[in-house]
Amino acid sequence: MDLLFDIFRVDSGWQAFFTILDMTIVFIVIYRVLLLIKGTRALQMLFGLIFILIFFYISQEDYLNLATTHWLIDMFIANLIIIVVIIFQHDIRRALAQVGRAPLLGGARSYEETSVLEEVVKACVMLSSRKLGALIAIEREADLSHFTEEGIKLDAVVTKDVLFTLFLPEHQNPLHDGAVIIQKGRVSAAGCFLPLTINPRVEKTLGTRHRAGIGVTEDTDAAVAIVSEETGTISIAYEGELHRDLDANEMRSLLQKIYRAGTTAAPAGSLLERLKFGSQDRDTPAQPASDEAEKDEVSS
């Protein structure tokens, strides 16, 4: 209690300002940590860790006097940092990657990037109409070059015809089973292997293509377009979550929100936008496209 009084005791206006700033930073850090572990095994383990700490406190000599139990938990706490790193290495890697790629100021996206997203949408519509499976990872700030090392390097212009051709399941096309990676507005590689998600909450009915799409977005900020080979449905994976059963307009709208490519969108990558993206963007309905765009999708 004395510590709380010391924290809130201020002697000047500047001290009050820095106290509020300090509390705001702590709030943002806690909020981001909770967002990162929401829906993962880390949240369950966090509750277990809290229970252990409470039991450690009441097992002291002043309370239950469980000397052996207290000593055992004390040894556990002494090595807690190593244990946490081992158990939560995936979540820690993901958190550090998100912190490292979160600029305070946003930058405008180019027209070329908008054109790339539109070509991806058109290609997915074409592939969906023929029930051809596809997996397209679009790079943002986080580098995807290490995923291209085992693939086939291409450096091709992003067009719907190029993407469609890469996923044709012909015997002469060994690339259709892997992922296509788009970097810096170009098709950099095809036939790439992406890591599968290890999230136990992912539906067991999802196939390898969808699990790979989710997996790469757990470690990077990439957006992944997925077309189901069985049903032809289009999905977008982003930040470890899967947005399923999208039509062309919904897919276009979601990609524009992710990349902030729209003319009325807020600056991309701003800190406040990243904090509220999960609750705001996913609840906002897709904006309908123009009649010309709809005719273009049908003709494709």
Topology:
Elements: H1 2-8, H2 13-37, H3 41-58, H4 67-78, H5 80-87, H6 89-100, H7 111-129, E1 134-138, H8 145-148, E2 152-157, H9 160-166, E3 179-183, E4 186-192, H10 208-219, E5 223-227, E6 234-238, E7 241-246, H11 248-259, H12 271-280, H13 291-299
Parallel strand pairs: 1-3
Antiparallel strand pairs: 1-5, 2-4, 3-4, 5-6, 6-7
Strand content: 5-15%
- Look at the structure and give the mean pLDDT: 77
> In CATH terms, what is the fold-level topology of the largest domain?
YojJ-like (1
Count the strands? 7
Q: Using the CA coordinates, give the radius of gyration.
A: 24 Å
Q: What is the CATH C level class of the largest domain, in words? A: Alpha Beta
Query: Level of helix content?
Result: 40-55%
**Number of contiguous helices:** 13
Shape label = elongated
User: Can you tell me the CATH architecture of the largest domain?
Assistant: 3-Layer(aba) Sandwich
> In what order do the strands lie side by side in the largest sheet?
2-4-3-1-5-6-7
Number of domains: 2
> What ranges have pLDDT less than 50 throughout 5 or more consecutive residues?
103-109, 261-300
Q: Please describe the biggest sheet, giving its number of strands, its sense, and whether it closes into a barrel.
A: 7 strands, mixed
Distance between the termini: 68 Å
Broad structural category: alpha+beta
Secondary-structure element string: HHHHHHHEHEHEEHEEEHHH
CATH superfamily of the largest domain: DNA integrity scanning protein, DisA, N-terminal domain
